[in-house]
Design a protein that fits this description.
4 helices, 87 residues
Length: 87
């Protein structure tokens, strides 16, 4: 809604939609499968895995598609993990 319909961030409609998204089963799955270090396993892999979310790359892509933002705790933990890896 924010990006496609250009709805201002602070509107009640967008705030309500965001709260619903954060309570969704799909966001819950991403959160529950995140490891203590902020990752979801390996960063990237061309190989298929049996995991529900096989890589950190896949989890970040899914989170972005679902509407997570860099300010969300799930992504803050992932950003910290990736920053440690890059150092």
């Amino acid at each position: 809604m924010r990006d496609v319909l250009k709805v201002p961030t602070e509107t009640d409609m967008l705030i309500s939609a965001r709260q619903e998204i954060l309570r969704s089963r799909w966001i819950g799955e991403i959160k529950n499968l995140q490891r203590e270090d902020g990752s979801w396993g390996g960063f990237h892999s061309a190989m298929k895995t049996k995991e529900r979310i096989g890589t950190t790359e896949a989890a970040v892509e899914r989170g972005l598609a679902l509407g997570l933002e860099t300010s969300d705790p799930i992504f803050r933990a992932a950003i910290n993990c990736l920053s440690r890896l890059l150092k």
